[in-house]
Amino acid sequence: MPGSQFYEDYTGWNLPAGYAMYQGTSMASPQAVGASVLLLSAAKRQGTDLTPVKLRTALTSTAAHIKGVQGDEEGAGLIDIPAAWKAVEKGTSAHDYTVKAPVDTVLDQQLKTLGFGTGVYDREGGLKDGQKKTHEVTVTRTSGPDGPVLHELRLKNNKADTFAILGSRTVELPLNKPVAVRIQAGSASAGVKSARLEVDAPTTEGVDRQILTTVVVSAPAEHTYVVSGSVQRNSANTYFVTVPEGAKTLEVRLGGLEDGSWTTAGALQPSGLPADDDDPTTPDVATYPNPQAGVWEIVVESYYATQPLDNRYALDVAVYGASFAPDPVTVPEGKAGTPAAVSRTATNGDAAVDGTLKGGTPGSSKTARPTIADGATQTTTVEVPEGATSLVVAIGSPEDNAADLDLMVYDAKGGLVGVDADADAEESVSVADPAAGTYTIEVLG
Fold first, then answer.
1. In angstroms, what CA-CA distances link 54 with 36, 43, 112, 352?
2. Using an 8 Å Cβ cutoff, are 293 and 243 in contact?
3. Predicted pLDDT at 338
4. Nearest Cα to 393, choosing from 426, 422, 428?
5. Gyration radius of the chain's alpha carbons
6. Residues paired with 383 in a beta bridge
7. What is the 8-class DSSP label of residue 237?
8. pLDDT confidence of 11, banded at 50, 70, 90?
9. The pTM is what?
10. What is the residue extent of each domain of the chain?
11. Spelled out in words, what is the top-level CATH class assigned to the domain 222-321?
12. pLDDT tens digits for range 383-415
């Protein structure tokens, strides 16, 4: 594909003219479209009626497994156009089905059928290494003969036999009548585990239905989680850690990198959205205050322009939970220049903290837990006195984990002094040395 040749400036190696290195769905989609166009044009030339269902069946039934890649990463596999065309020539066909499979994430209540989707995805179910858990998948055949049709059940790309079919490997599916298939998951190690469940009628040419089954075996980060590894250029490694309720800070440290290694670490919230590092200027340390409880995904990614092919690293994830009571401390009355005695109790329930306690300038705060309708705007005002050194406004911890709220702060003259409007509800604005006056705070639902 077209691209400027800047790799040599970073890596010492280059690509042929007209080529660049990228990854992801932006690259996979045009490959799949190109393969489909080739098959459709050949079918048109031969006078073959290649419907969308037949095209999909031909592509997915003949795709080849990619060595070392799991089902959640490869889908049906690597497209094989010659094999797919042979399937078309043989009259590829498949019945239609509906699938109801359990989904356990912080967003599962947003699904059309609450807690259920078209494949198994258990992220927040608490599966630990060495344990086993059973998931019930309901399959309904919605086309084909009126009577029962025998189907074979197979697990494909089932690395380390993580999944097992409980009961018979064959099942009869009547027309429009749901039938339950039980799948058991169990793993001896943490991480994402996946496989494809194939539901296939031998009387059709092609695999009738492929159902993705995925579980996340999380490592509990009650205090710290430490791991070392290596990630190849233009690739990423992921780790899943469970952050407990009440955690104050999640810290991700990346070290052990060689010279010329362009490798970074970041975090995805339990909702799957990227979390904002509170200080992007420190690339080796990412800190996430007040992290949402649940399973976080830590991503170690090496960029396409990194010099080494294999990038070694050391990853250290820590959960801090030091708290102070009371918080905040209220001083009934104070005089300028006169110290006020206060008493607080510090409690640490997570990773050890090596530091010192330091006092600061007294301030005032307001905390509220209002509600807001979708599309509505809520306005609040706050008086900032002369001499104030900072104004901090923050919203978060919504009742609906899928909520997307935006935060805007205006000064006394109506000028916008801060905005945070990313794709979640955890927003904050900090204004240093604010001018005195009445500030307006807008929350957009």
1. 11, 11, 27, 59
2. yes
3. 77
4. 428
5. 27
6. 438
7. E
8. low
9. 0.75
10. 7-89, 97-217, 222-321, 366-445
11. mainly beta
12. 999 888 899 999 988 888 888 899 999 999 999
